[in-house]
Amino acid sequence: MNRRPLLSFTVCWVAGSAAGCLFSGHSLLFCLAVMLLLPVVWAVSGGIRWRAAALLVMGLIVSALYWEYSEVRNVSLLPGVLGQPVSELNEAYVTAAGVIASPVERDGDRVDFVVKLSGIRLHQQGEQSAAEGEEGKKAKVFNPNLAAETDAAGAVEKKQAKGELVAIQIKLQEESEIAVAAQWQRGDQVVIEGELIRPQITRNFGGFDYRSYLLTQKIHWLLKGEGITSVEAKPPISWEPSTILRWNDKARSVLGAEMSRLFQEPHAGYMKGLVIGIQKELDPETFRQFSQLGLTHILAISGMHVAVYVGVILILLRRCRLTRETALTVTLLLVPVYVLLSGAGPSVIRAGIMSMIALLAARLGMLKDGLNILAASALMMLVWNPYLLLSVSFQLSFLVTAGLMVYTPLAAPLFRRLPGWLGSSLSVTIIAQLVSFPLTIYYFNQFSLLSVVANLLLVPFITFLVLPLGTLVLMLGRVWNAAALLIAQLAELLNNATFAVVEWVNSFTSGVLIWASPSILWICLYYCLLYGLLHMLKRRTEAKLVPQFMDDETRPLAELERAEPRGKGRWKIGRNVNSKYGNTTNQPDLLSTANSRIAALAFQSYPQSSLSRWSYLVVILCVVGLTILLYKGYNAETLRDGSGSISYLDIGQGDSSLITTPGGAHILVDGGGTVSFGNREEWRIRRSPFEVGAKTLLPLLKQRGIHRLDAVILTHGDQDHAGGLQAVLEGMPVSAMLFNGTLADTEPYSKLMTTALDAGVRLYPVQQAMTLAPDEATRLNFLWPEPPADGQTLPEKVEDQNHESVVFRLEMNGRSFLFTGDMDEAAEEAILHFASQSGIKQGNPIDVLKVAHHGSKTATSVDWLAFWNPGAAVISAGVNNLYGHPHGIVLERLSDTGTRVYRTDQQGEIQLRVGKEGITVRHQLTSYSD
After folding, report:
1. Do both 655 and 783 map to the same domain?
2. Are strands 446-448 and 512-514 parallel, antiparallel or unpaired?
3. In this predicted model, what pLDDT tens digit does every residue of 657-683 receive, in sequence order?
């Protein structure tokens, strides 16, 4: 605190903000009381002055209050303005006027941007909008009267709705509309007609919460319009401060277009992300490959890019013979330009602020301290926007930077025997990976053991070779086109080499470990144990290098000189100085002698034998603690009480269930899938479309720490059951896949089977009377499909996959569950006949029935329910699905039998914990309206 008061104050500010974020009410008061005791105890013990303690206390209290103040203000004004409750406003048709407050981005047939409202008007029921009529289909120009009408829809509206941010999504109807949408820019005044939608919350335990994410952007509503006829836009009338951002968007667009002209795909998208921070056109497969190796920080403009930028400018300015002061001043003024041109993300803003502070300190000749500069930039950003604390980019950027400053000096002595450049590179790379590890597994739930090697090899290669070449191509593009194209070809060759190395390293799939998201306590313990381990290893290393003397022994200068510390964590044995007067060996100078004497005296109070004993003990304790911590974190999903679980996941209009047996086996039943109707026009296809398997199912499995699926049961080949399994097979080890023994005549199904074979997944066709016993407490009895005809050895293609759905009865801890896929009534009758012949008596109830075909009226007959007599039923259906599932007739049948019904469209994910004492049920959503 005495050396770095700003750092201590910033730590307290972050702690207070985190407390305000995590707790509320009495819990927040209790947490603050505990934290406020720490500075007081520190002051009582004499560690800091009371004035400093008061400053820290103030930082904790003010930051918590500031967070609460921000939360109170971060609410939607629209319910009060329009006089309607939130539930009534959802899916309401409105006309909104405002100003575009973000870049306008198009992906396929969808255009996205953010509007700052100046007014809004709610359409009455039955009112026809301009966009719905025939006139609305014509090309429209901005109508100031409509804007004025919207602004003046009510004095209260104009006053209270002004300034609220709304996310706009416009779905283009024709390819010709692309040119019109391309003219929309930040700062345009717009009037938009569309449907007001409340953002979706997470519908699965641990899933991504889109509503909470938008809340950190201070956005509470989506406004969805159809076609360009739903938008009227015109450029701003006068200059405003936001015009600078408008110019910046144009400049970024021009630079991106220049990159597309000079580079071929996929290199153009890759170089845009690398050089100017435009990641929207990066090939999704390339991003996935880089992400798996922990290399995505290369693709995000960060401190590395800013450092290269600042260093190049300083070198060029000094080459122009400018004075040191002038060069520093010019560079200081150019840093914000680069921050804006690179997209102004949290990481580049952090790096830009730190660079500007450092340049200013160098210009004024002030003492520079990296941690204080980092603290100043963090404090400035959090005061500007406290919600940055929840940004993954912000957390990783500051934590890794702070970790490098704190941990690298501790680790440097451990690499003293290596050449200087290699030891420095290794220490920085390893520390960066160790520091980022907890956040990496918390947010992305995977970590590659080969990440250190990949970063050590590729980061310098890309930073000091590919990045400068890409920048040079961009600079020469309009000046010397032939040279720019030639250099671009060279950069593409280097990129191909990079992609090949990344793909080759990723081929070692056993090196990728899947982790459950750890707790905050786990993360804090990890950093404490890591610091203790590195600190004591550093002490032990330095103790061995410092010469030991008796208290009454004279310390020869020559001996001290041989132990002179050189650089950060490096020690030089002996000294050899070459000069014009000849070679001089062991010639100490006053400064080095003083440093050596100080180093020796520092360890005199700790005799080597005593230091070795207790430091060795501390090292052992830290290693054991880290080992236990990592083991517990890696195996966090294991149930310790002999219970099993069944999770009926909410993946929209599809079906997917996860079974975890008491023995720890994981069985995935179906994987959902995004259904597409017909062949879409090429211009409508999005670069990164929503796909249930990749965006919902696979992240959920990883978030829960499932390292391997022991079996995947594919009930049948329809896309809403099989489509999501493609991402699962590509992103997670799978031991076996059980299917109905038929083939679906579709391209996605063929691709899925090919992927399974290439990945070494064992394929098993199942049929009636087969059983599977993952452990002693679990048994799966397959009831359908029926065995193939005599002589049939190869799977045949079947168009009606529903009838061939795999049906099985699960017995776990004495409880029974029935899974039915999309079976029809004909299959039900056949199963009932088989069950009666197999000795299964009617009226022997099952605990939970998975209702067939999402509650369609083509299944779940009266006889079926009477035979199984289920105590509860689960229906998997999408919210407001186009098929009307579940059907009212099925719900009536379930009600008549007294069966309790759970629905994913109303309650989200439904989890059953199956213990020997009974079944415990919980679901993600408490009500449909939530």
Report:
1. yes
2. antiparallel
3. 999 999 999 999 999 988 765 567 888
Domain co-membership, 58 together with 98: no
| Interatomic CA distance for residues 96 and 430, integer angstroms | 52
Contact 772, 760 (CB under 8 A): no
Among 171, 204, 238, identify where a domain stops.
238
Q: Based on the domain organization, do 608 and 672 belong to the same domain? A: no
Specify the amino acid at residue 644: G
Whole domain around residue 146: which residue ranges?
A: 78-125+137-238
**Helix and strand tally (H, E) in the chain?**
35, 28
CA distance linking residue 334 with residue 351, whole number of Å? 13
Phi, psi of 43 (to 5 degrees): -70, -40
Tokens of 324: 């040191």
Strands 110-122 and 92-100: antiparallel
Q: What is the 3-state secondary structure (H, E, C) of 463-485?
A: HHHHHHHHHHHHHHCCCCHHHHH
Q: Are 23 and 68 in contact (CB under 8 A)?
A: no
**Which residue type sits at 340?**
L
Q: Please tell me the distance from the alpha carbon of residue 930 to that of residue 925, in angstroms, as a whole number.
A: 7
As given in the structure block, the two tokens for residue 345 are 């993300």
Angle at CA of residue 864, ends 862 and 867, nearest 5°? 105
Tokens 């972050």 locate to 14
Q: How many CB atoms lie within 10 A of CB 261?
A: 13
For residue 109, the domain's CATH number is 2.40.50.140
Strand order across the beta sheet in which 848-850 lies: 771-775, 778-784, 807-812, 815-819, 848-850, 872-875, 900-903
Q: Do both 278 and 379 map to the same domain? A: yes
Q: How far from the centroid of its chain's Cα atoms is residue 157's Cα?
A: 37
What confidence tens digit (pLDDT) does each residue in 257-286 have?
999 999 998 899 999 988 888 888 888 888
Whole-number Cα distances in Å, 916 to 848, 874, 919? 16, 21, 8
DSSP state of 233: E
CB 181 within 8 A of CB 109: no
Nearest to 303 by CA among 361, 356, 345, 350: 350
Phi, psi of 492 (to 5 degrees): -65, -35
Nearest to 917 by CA among 777, 813, 810: 813
Please check whether residue 672 is in contact with residue 654, taking contact to mean a CB–CB distance below 8 angstroms. Answer: yes
Model pTM? 0.85
Distance CA 344, CA 501 (A): 30
Question: Tokens 């300190």 appear where?
Answer: 361
Phi, psi for residue 279 in degrees, rounded to 5: -100, -5
Please name the amino acid found at residue 703: Q
Residue type present at position 551: D
Residue 289, helix vs strand vs coil: helix
Give the total residue count for the chain: 930
Please report, as a single letter, which amino acid is at residue 592.
Answer: S
Report d(CA 878, CA 886) in Å as an integer: 9
Q: Cβ-count burial of 793 within 10 angstroms (0-12 exposed, 13-18 middle, 19+ buried)?
A: exposed
Distances (CA, A) of 55 to 32, 61, 374: 15, 10, 19
| Nearest Cα to Cα of residue 718 among 656, 630, 637 | 656
The token pair at 83 is 């006089």
Give me the mean pLDDT over the 879-901 stretch: 93
Structural domains counted in the chain: 5
Q: How many other C-beta atoms lie within 10 A of the C-beta of residue 410?
A: 21
The two structure tokens encoding residue 127: 């009112």
Give the H or E element holding residue 538. Answer: helix 520-545
Cβ-in-10-Å burial (0-12, 13-18, 19+) of 640 comes to exposed
Q: Residue 9 above 80 pLDDT? A: yes
Tell whether 639 is covered by a domain: no
pLDDT tens per residue across span 595-608:
444 444 444 444 55
Q: Do residues 436 and 553 both lie within one domain?
A: no
